[in-house]
Design brief:
GROEL, domain 1; GroEL; 17% strand; seven-stranded mixed β-sheet; three-stranded antiparallel β-sheet; alpha+beta; 3 domains; disordered C terminus; GROEL, domain 2; 21 strands; 539 residues
Length: 539
C-alpha cells in the first residue's frame, strides 16, 4: 500500500534552475533566432554595418557576420552555438558566415511552427537531415566545374566576395592583388591544388588610401636594421635565416671563471670578440649579405656585421621567420658552424622603409615565393580593419574554388533551385518527415528574401518572380540588387564557390537539429556560486 505521507525527493540542491520540455525548446529556439535576426541586415551587397562598442569605448564597424558575433557578449548557451556555426564556416571556407547563421535561424523558426502542430522534434530533425543531404546532392549536380588557370573567372569570384566593400575602382585593383597572391602560394600536389592561406601575410598600416594597398612578392617584417651603419638597401640579397642568437657562447650554469689580473680580463673579452668575429666571418664567407635572426644579436656582432656591409634584423617573430624561408627559399639555420651557401635564400631587393612613421623591412622580388604579403593601407584604422576582413573573405573564397574547382551563381539563385527540388523530394517522402522537408525548402528561401529586403526591394514580388523564373528552367536566375530585377547571375558575373553553400547548409542544419533535440536545460553543478545565474541565462 502506497504511503501518502512520503516526503518529496530533491535531486538538485536548492537554487538550481531547470527548464524542461517545450519551455526548454522554445527558449533555445528564441535565443538562436535573436542571434540570426541581429546579423540578418548585414547580408548582401546592400547590407548595413554594425557598430560594436566595448566597455573601454573601443569601436568596431563591420558587416562581417563572424566578427559581429565574436565581439558580442553572448550569454545564452543556444545562442553560443550559433556563434560556433559562424566560426566553423570561417575556418572551413572563410566566407558565408552570415548565410549560415540566417539559415540556422530560419530552420528553427520553421521547426517551431511544426512543434505547434504537435510534430515530435525527432521527426523534424530526421526530416531536416534528409533535406540537408538532398540539398548537398542538388548543389553538386548544378555546380559548374571551372579551370583554375582562368584568371578572369577567379577575378569574378573575388569581385563577388568584395561587393559592397569600397568603391568600384578600388575593388578592381584589390581583385587583381588577391588573385595574384593566392596563385603565388598555391601548390600543385597529386591530390590537386593545395592552398595554405596562412602563407598570405596581411600587414595593416594606416595612412594613404585603400588604393595604396599593394602586393609584395616576398615578406614585410615589422623590424628595422639593428645598426645605423648598415646599408638601407640591398639588391640581389643572399639571405640567411637563423633561429639561434648571434652572441658569444655562454658557459654552463655551474661554471666559475676566476679572473685575477687585468690581462686575464682583457684576454677573456678578446676571446668573446673573436668568437663573434668568427661568426660574422663565417656568414660573410658563404656570401650572405642579409641576416634575419629570431633571437638577439650582440652589440659587438652588430658592429662587425655593419663593417662588412651586411643588413641584419633581430628578434623576428617565428611566424615571420617561417614565411621568410618559404618566400626566399632559405633554410632555417640552427648553428653557424655548419652554414653553407645552399642554406641561403634570395630576394631581388631588401630595403628599410618608413610607413606611417614606423621603420619596416621589405623583402621583395623573390623568385618563386610560396609566401607573400598584402600591405593594406587606408585613411583610418576602422577602414583598414574592414578592408582586411573583406580581403580575408575573398582569399577564403578563392582558395575554396582552386581546391574544389566548382562554382555556383549568387543572388539567391542556388537557394531557390534547392528549395524547388527539395519540395519535389518532400512529396516522395512518407509520414510527417515530409512536412519537415517542406519547412527546410521554405527556410532556403530566406536568403533571397533577405537580399531583397536589405536592398529596399519588395521581398514578396522578388520571390514570386524568382520562383517563376526557376519553374521555367532558368537555373541561374537571381536577384540583381542594383537593377531590382531577376537576371541570369552567371552572365552577370555574380559567382560564388560551391563550398560556401554546401558548408553553410551543413553547419546550419546540424546546429538546428542539435538545438531541436534539447528538451531539458539544467544549470551545471560545476558553476561556482559567484557565477551562478539567478535564472536561466537570457539574451
Amino acid at each position: 500500500m502506497a504511503d501518502n505521507n512520503q516526503q518529496p525527493i530533491f535531486i538538485l540542491p536548492e537554487g538550481y534552475k531547470r527548464q524542461m520540455g517545450k519551455d526548454a525548446q522554445r527558449t533555445n529556439i528564441m535565443a538562436a533566432r535573436i542571434v540570426a535576426e541581429t546579423i540578418r541586415t548585414t547580408l548582401g551587397p546592400k547590407g548595413m554595418d554594425k557598430m560594436l562598442v566595448d566597455t573601454l569605448g573601443d569601436v568596431v564597424i563591420t558587416n562581417d557576420g563572424v566578427t559581429i558575433l565574436k565581439e558580442m557578449e553572448i550569454e545564452h548557451p543556444a545562442a553560443k552555438m550559433m556563434v560556433e556555426i559562424a566560426e566553423t564556416q570561417e575556418e572551413e571556407v572563410g566566407d558565408g558566415t552570415t548565410t549560415a547563421v540566417i539559415l540556422a535561424g530560419e530552420l528553427l523558426k520553421r521547426a517551431e511552427d511544426l512543434l505547434d502542430q504537435e510534430i515530435h522534434p525527432t521527426i523534424i530533425a530526421h526530416g531536416f537531415e534528409m533535406a540537408a543531404d538532398k540539398a548537398a546532392e542538388i548543389l553538386e549536380k548544378i555546380a559548374i566545374k571551372i579551370n583554375p588557370d582562368e584568371t578572369e573567372m577567379l577575378e569574378k569570384i573575388v569581385k563577388t566576395a568584395m561587393t559592397g566593400k569600397g568603391s568600384i575602382a578600388i575593388r578592381e585593383k584589390l581583385n587583381k592583388i588577391i588573385v595574384s597572391a593566392v596563385k603565388e602560394v598555391a601548390e600543385k600536389t597529386d591530390e590537386g591544388i593545395v592552398i595554405d592561406v596562412d602563407n598570405i601575410k596581411l600587414e595593416k598600416k594606416t595612412g594613404g588610401g585603400v588604393s595604396d594597398t599593394e602586393l609584395i612578392k616576398g615578406i614585410t617584417i615589422d623590424k628595422e636594421r639593428v645598426h645605423s651603419e648598415m646599408p638601407k638597401t640591398v639588391k640581389d640579397a643572399k639571405i640567411l635565416v637563423i633561429e639561434t642568437p648571434l652572441e658569444a657562447k655562454e658557459t654552463g650554469s655551474d661554471t666559475q671563471i676566476r679572473i685575477n689580473t687585468p690581462e686575464q680580463l682583457k684576454a677573456f673579452i678578446a676571446e668573446e670578440e673573436n668568437q663573434l668575429k668568427d661568426m660574422v666571418e663565417k656568414i660573410k664567407s658563404v656570401g650572405a649579405n642579409v641576416v634575419f635572426c629570431q633571437k638577439g644579436i650582440d652589440d659587438v656582432a652588430q658592429h662587425f656585421l655593419a663593417k662588412e656591409g651586411i643588413y641584419a634584423c633581430r628578434r623576428v617573430k617565428r611566424s615571420d621567420i617561417e614565411k621568410l624561408a618559404k618566400a626566399t627559399g632559405a633554410k632555417i639555420v640552427s648553428t653557424i658552424d655548419d652554414l653553407s651557401e645552399s642554406d641561403l635564400g634570395y630576394a631581388g631587393l631588401v630595403e628599410e622603409r618608413k610607413i606611417s612613421g614606423e621603420a619596416m623591412t621589405f623583402v621583395r622580388n623573390c623568385k618563386n615565393p610560396k609566401a607573400v604579403t598584402i600591405l593594406i593601407r587606408g585613411g583610418t584604422e576602422h577602414v583598414v580593419d574592414e578592408v582586411e576582413r573583406a580581403i580575408q573573405d575573398a582569399i577564403g573564397d578563392l582558395a575554396s574554388v582552386l581546391e574544389n574547382s566548382k562554382i555556383v551563381a549568387g543572388g539567391g539563385a542556388p537557394e531557390i533551385e534547392v528549395a524547388k527540388e527539395i519540395r519535389k523530394f518532400a512529396a516522395s517522402l512518407g509520414g510527417r518527415e515530409q512536412l519537415a522537408a517542406q519547412a527546410f525548402a521554405d527556410a532556403m528561401e530566406s536568403i533571397p528574401r533577405t537580399l531583397a529586403e536589405n536592398a529596399g526591394l519588395d521581398p514578396i514580388d522578388m520571390l514570386v518572380n524568382l520562383k517563376a523564373a526557376h519553374e521555367e528552367g532558368k537555373l541561374w536566375a537571381g536577384i540583381d540588387i542594383a537593377k531590382g530585377e531577376i537576371v541570369d547571375m552567371l552572365n552577370g558575373d555574380v559567382i560564388e564557390p560551391l563550398k560556401v553553400k554546401t558548408q553553410a547548409i551543413k553547419s546550419a542544419s546540424e546546429v538546428a537539429i542539435m538545438i531541436l533535440r534539447i528538451d531539458d536545460v539544467i544549470a551545471a553543478g560545476k558553476l561556482s556560486k559567484d557565477n551562478m545565474p539567478q535564472s536561466m541565462p537570457g539574451m
